[in-house]
Amino acid sequence: MEQVGLAATSDVTLWSLFMEAGFVVKIVMLGLIGASIWTWAIVADKWISFGKFRRQLDQFEQVFWSGQSLEELYRTLSDKKTSGMSAIFVSAMREWKKSFERGAKSPIGLQMRIDKAMDVSLAREADGLEARLSSLATIGSAAPFIGLFGTVVGIMTSFQAIAGSKSTNLAVVAPGIAEALLATAIGLLAAIPAVIAYNKFSSDAGKLSARMEGFADEFSGILSRQIDERSNARQAAE
């Protein structure tokens, strides 16, 4: 009897537990494994894209504050696909040039249109940074409960096995309990990295958005001074 018990114990592997699990528990486990894979795919994508985004911000700030003409910088960037501060700069300069080409005479109205253009561009960039973070939040909050559902079903299976065999022998109870705990473990395996990654990337997205907002405020001040200078020059000429 002891040798039979040892043989039964040796057969309790993760794969055997999965294969012997009920249909519902298998679906739960597969769903949680898929969620875990999706989590790590998002983590890899965000890690790479955020690093690239930071480098783009650094490069643009270096060029912008180097003393290069705003018109020259705009001509360089206007025909390219821009992101981050570059997109905010191009949107503001495009509105600036359109307004002066149409003979805008109200400095206040021009300033409001430029600020609005930068706000729209800033919101678009912030949305891009936060893309797919909601998936991490959903996985982090829902995966433990989905795993718990699999646990409950597994324990119910154990009780059914006990009732069917009319025995409380560990060899009868253990597979169902192990199956139940495996569902919980997979749920936590999916949830914990998702929560950590969500907190990390949400913080990074907030910092990058704040950095872009700071640039937008500084650039708005620069354009405001130029608008005042042009307005004063126009009034002096008249």
What can you see in these coordinates?
With 238 residues, the protein is mostly helical. It has one domain (71-237). 87% of the residues lie in helices and 0% in strands. It has 8 helices and no strands. It has helices spanning 2-10, 14-20, 23-64, 70-77, 85-101, 107-130, 133-165, 170-237. It is rod-shaped and about 105 Å long. Residues 1-10 have low confidence and may be disordered.
Describe the protein's topology.
Blueprint lengths: L1 H9 L3 H7 L2 H42 L5 H8 L7 H17 L5 H24 L2 H33 L4 H68 L1
Helix pairs in contact: 2-8, 3-7, 3-8, 4-5, 5-6, 5-8, 6-8, 7-8
Number of domains: 1
Largest sheet: none
Count the beta strands. 0
Number of helices: 8
In N-to-C order, the SSE pattern is HHHHHHHH
Low-confidence stretches: 1-10
The helix content is over 70%
Rg (CA only): 30 Å
Strand content: under 5%
How far apart the termini lie comes to 109 Å
What's the average pLDDT? 83
Question: Outline, from the CA principal axes?
Answer: rod-shaped
Decide which structural class fits the backbone.
mainly alpha
Primary descriptors:
8 helices, 238 residues, disordered N terminus, mainly alpha
